[in-house]
Amino acid sequence: MRIDLHTHSTASDGTDGPDQLVAAAQRAELDVIAVCDHDNFAAVLPAQRRGQQVGVTVLNGLELSCCLAEPDGGPVRQVHLLGYGCRHDDVELGEELQRARAGRFGRVGAMCDRLTALGLAITEDEVLAQAADSPSIGRPHIADVLVSKGYVADRRQAFDEYLGDGKPAYVSRYYTPLQTGVALVHRAGGVAVVAHAWGPGSRAALPLHVLTGLVADAGLDGVEVDHPDHNDDVRAVLGALTTELGLIRTGASDYHGAGKTGNDLGSCTTGVEQFERLVAEIDRRGGRR
Ligand code: AMP
Ligand code: MN
Ligand code: MN
Ligand code: MN
User: Fold this and answer.
1) Own/partner long-range contacts of 198-201 (Cβ < 8 Å, ≥24 apart)
2) Contact 142, 167 (CB under 8 A)
3) Residue 117 burial by Cβ neighbours in a 10 Å radius (0-12, 13-18, 19+)
4) Tens digits of per-residue pLDDT, 23-59?
5) Phi–psi pair at 193, nearest 5 degrees
6) Ligand 3 centroid from CA 196, angstroms
7) What is the DSSP letter of 4?
8) Is pTM, for the whole model, over 0.85?
């Protein structure tokens, strides 16, 4: 069994629609994928319908934009939280996702203004057109406009020079406090797993004691250990932690579509026994697979 538990579609900053994503899963010889778009579930059901036709299991997922506040009231530190098996009609979670998506749209104009002031003229309409019908607009959509206008070579350069956290065109937005995110996932019947826990962007936010505290205080269920952003050392330490604390250990590519981030679908995978634990836990909580 080949299982990739973190992928994106055009319902957020991925470039494959639900049908294309499932076709890509077939080409990558995957038996299971989870669709984890940022702050919305729009592609889950279409991908599940397509998956049923062709024999790919599609797990209901979500990547929630969360944060930890600096103790001294300094800048927020972003942490991405994966929610598996959340009921889509959960009112509280739905309201929080709505708040997150509103925050995403609300900052686009200010980021366009900053880019324009930096000599990269770009309009909000261009970004909205780039995002097409995605319910969740993100910096990658802005990056894609910068690429199409010839200002940068690719998404990576756009983030490195302009859009990344703390870069000149970065504007903050609303992020769900991490503990609240875990609780919302649980109350919607889901299983909460920290995404790319010690990738370049998140390691500073999640030192070991914060991670273990999240398990003890909020009941965090798992850690995404095998991820393209994690080197062997990181995987060894996080893997040992999941064993020690009895957490679910997942692995996934964080695929965003062919040719965009270089993370090939299926390049990191989850063990079948871990997947079975995850699914059993969703069922036990009355979640929606
Ligand atoms: P946002 O959702 O607007 O906060 O933008 C974050 C998203 O941008 C992530 O989910 C990634 O898909 C993408 N991203 C973050 N850093 C980079 C990077 N260095 N190069 C390309 N894409 C990135
Ligand atoms: Mn993304
Ligand atoms: Mn992420
Ligand atoms: Mn992701």
Assistant:
1) 198/230, 198/234, 198/237, 198/238, 199/227, 199/229, 199/230, 200/229, 201/78, 201/165, 201/229
2) no
3) exposed
4) 999 999 999 999 999 999 999 999 999 999 999 999 9
5) -130, 130
6) 7
7) E
8) yes
Q: Which is the closest atom of ligand 1 to the Cα of 164?
A: 16
Alpha-helical segments (H) within the chain: 18-27, 44-54, 91-106, 108-117, 124-131, 139-148, 155-158, 178-187, 208-218, 232-245, 272-284
Counting ligands in written order, the one closest to the CA of 140 is: 1
Kindly report, residue by residue over 96-140, the tens digit of the pLDDT: 999 999 999 999 999 999 999 999 999 999 999 999 989 999 999
Pocket test for ligand 1, best of 13, 163, 254 (most atoms within 8 A of CB): 13
Q: What are phi and psi of 177, to 5 degrees?
A: -55, 135
